[in-house]
Amino acid sequence: MIISADLHLHSPYTKRLDTPISLQQFSLNAKLKGIQLLGTGDCLHPRWMQEIQQLTEVDSGTYQYEDTRFVLTAEIETKDHIHHLVLFPDATATTEFRERIKPYAPDISKHGRPKIELMSADAAEHAVEVGALIGPAHLFDTFSGAYTKYDSIQDCYQHMTPSIHFIELGLASNTYLADKINELHKFTFLSNSDTHNPHPIRLAREFTQFKVKKPTFNELAFAIKRQNGNKPVLNVGIPPEEGKYFDTACKKCHMRYSFYQASEQQWKCSCGGRIKQGVTDVIDKKSSYRPSQHPIHRPQYASFLPLHEIITRVYHEQNPFTNRVNEEWHKLINIFGNEINTLLSTPTEDLSKIGPAALAEAIHSFRNATVHFHPGGGGNYGSVTIPWEEPQLKIGLSSKKET
Ligand SMILES: [Zn+2]
Ligand SMILES: [Zn+2]
Questions:
Q1: Which CATH number characterizes residue 44's domain?
Q2: Which residue, 286, 218, 281, 226, is CA-closest to 249?
């Protein structure tokens, strides 16, 4: 069977949100999105773990609430300021890992994403020893991605590198960009939302589809390792061009620079501002392939905006949270079953019977990659325009501004 999974999210304990967020809310919205498997996030936090354990354990380390399955996941920050995603095989392994890192993690009972005073390789060793899967979270993130600190995955995980099976692409990248880098060819790419908010515009804004025999941790682990016939079959994410630091640009006036120009000017813009290196240049410096080349096991990558964003454009609404957008979204979900069906597989003829022609056209242009990207840079968000919106000037999108 093919399942859609979002394996990186956060409980209210990561940002200390006042609004209560529950696993039940994540589960209900996952169903509307078309997601069968979620990571619990924050499973090292004792109160969140208590909530997880209220759910039914249907298989070792696999929990269920209504139609959604959960596996135990957490994000940790190591001493080198790098974020890692950890997938635990069961509650016993989670407890054991917690006990091992407790002496190095004073905030482990307070913060959903604990800070551990161990280097990446040492933290990975503990994770692997309890049977967990670990890999770099949002690898290309300019603040806490492993490449901000290390030249390579090998530098980051050292002797533990052979036990690393995945990297998380994160919002800053996609398969095309990541596969320019030779050392990444051997890893499975995960696309996850990293959301702190269960709203369907955030949850599963990025997700991975896997071929598995059933939706359980063990089957997922085989898929990530590409064993027993299990494997990832599709990555879906929002266009990385939207990111604030996609191109190299000045942080003050947002003037674009090539890497060469910026180095010539010692990263000082003529306006006096500082030039910030963009993700594309970080990747190009490491790249072995131009254009990108993909290893044989690599699945397709599809770029989509969340359906709320597309509806906002189609109906010229001010933002994706208006009643109109919400009503139109629910209408489509009721008819086509869920958001993933609506975006990925409903025939455009069926879409055009329900909504305005512009809706079917917009979804069609994402499927065929004919949307236009206007890359961000220097702290300014990029944007995406659908062909019928040209040549109107488009506002930046809101899907990344808050998580
Ligand atoms: Zn993170
Ligand atoms: Zn400037």
A1: 3.20.20.140
A2: 281
